[in-house]
């Protein structure tokens, strides 16, 4: 398999992950979680982290065979257990200044054949246990980043007609291109990319639009923006003062919609991969922020279950702008992975909003965020609504219109 | 490589590790540390643990390439860092009832080419960080066990003249024989073996010797035994009530020397593999329990550093009896690994004593243990002093002598 993955580009990905992604500081410890299959990248990242002056690098590997062993042999009570001690330890490390990196790349369909009730219980137990550590990541207390590795199972899911080697090669090249490590100086390329995204967020934050209106085939949707919303994109600065790129890759600028001010109808422009199912041709109608009608040509039951998760699941927590010409969009690939797919098109997300997408969001209470229109939910599911045929206008507080996107590109 | 390791015996080793070694209880969580190379055994152990009713099994892997990356690329300050958070988390898990398993099998010479000062600093930082978790293991709060996997680098170290496959095969068969999984019913074989060891400890505990005197080539050492010492061997019962075999394999019976009552000189009968170095022909003189002179024909600097780790590092924490005819001794192999080599010969250990080697040790405070002669230290390093030419006499409280070993065998 190794020959399918360009070793030079993989080494550059490790450099980008350490120096652009998590932006590891001299003396800072690093906690790194990864699927076992990503071991070659973990080794390169550890070396890059030590070159960058890491304190100690601690990798925690998840093995798919061991995960499956629980479903094959575990007693019923096992599915309500989680390694709380490990996550509590991580929370302690973050409180003491450690940085966090995660590598994705495991088999997206690993648990597709297992009892969904057990999968849900194990997932819930794990989420609860992870809460103390996740709070410090979601609260942006520390610098963190996610990047990806072209695991074979993931590659075969994306390219079912190719041999394993060819599939891994295709996925690897797609990851490298999207992560800008196919360029001669990836760190400089990320500097330029971040500057470009910053120009967009500065312009949008200066405009303070009251709403965005999306129009295109099957779409006429007005998305009100939350009071005191702030646009984010590319590099941003954690509370520990470190400016990092939390997602490698990233193409989006994004902010918080107003949970009560979304009206009209919208058609998805790509299938939505959700918990092992593909939901196709989604069409949804909003009234006063709430989904009042939802259809899909395939997977409609999954869609209905999703929007019935809780009250906030029928409302928006994110709106994001991605030009149709972005490299991931131009690849034409469906990655079955939000880290990539959300960067292929303008999207909205059902569910939870981000505190950092408010002016001074770090100091707002959940009550204040709700009062300004921020949605809350257990879920956050991104969902593509952009294409080369979609226009976007900004609507000012006085009702004035200003072009934002024309035919899928910045106006 | 897989074909070099008998899959049936490896599966039996996993069963022995779970059901004889750690004796995992239904509903009990398991924390498992292993070198990356032992992944096939970790997977079998995870499956066996779930079959035995495990709560959740959490493997933590150590990768040799990542360990080396620190020495190749790390800044100087890195060598005083350790993942305290991970060990604090383990201590929390043990306090909440989790069991502990460790697999050895990595390259014993991994760090042989690295700066010994950095190796020592990293080892010390790690020992300090591990202290809260180790206290619960050394205090036998929970059931725990160590077993081993025939990693290739280890095998090549032991069999430098063989091809990799043949070396792994030889080591695998040696591990399987020593771990009694080459027998038709390994669990029954362990029952019989434990009964034999129990007979020896019962005899020694009945005798209540004040000291043991070792005599042989280059050795005349009187090892005073701690007040209220208790001989242990084979299966024993942790404070949580679970009877486990902490070492797979084990051939020794052992107890606590008196930290202030060791006098004379002693010559090692085998090289000591320590942190990637081989220390050869150790000769040491004790006065009133303390090493006052230490020499070695090779690795003397490493030895000096070791006994300078802390005050307790110059005193004994264990004395152990192993007949020269034990299967591991008879194999004639030097394993470069304490788990095996300490079961090839009588040995002493520098450093920390075991609370369980005291009568009612579970209820003694550290102060009481110290008052009875128990040593304390960050280190515990076993070191072979037995051979077919060594005699041992028990010295009674009244000064009477009684033969214990003659020419390396039980008298
Ligand atoms: Zn997004
Ligand atoms: Zn999102
Ligand atoms: Zn021992
Ligand atoms: Zn020992």
UniProtKB/TrEMBL annotation, chains A, B:
InterPro entries: M29_Exopeptidase, M29_N-terminal, Peptidase_M29. Its cofactor is Mg(2+); Zn(2+); Co(2+). The keyword Hydrolase applies. Keywords: Aminopeptidase, Hydrolase, Metal-binding, Metalloprotease, Protease. It holds the Pfam family Peptidase_M29. GO terms for molecular function: aminopeptidase activity. The keyword Protease applies. Belongs to the peptidase M29 family. This is Aminopeptidase.
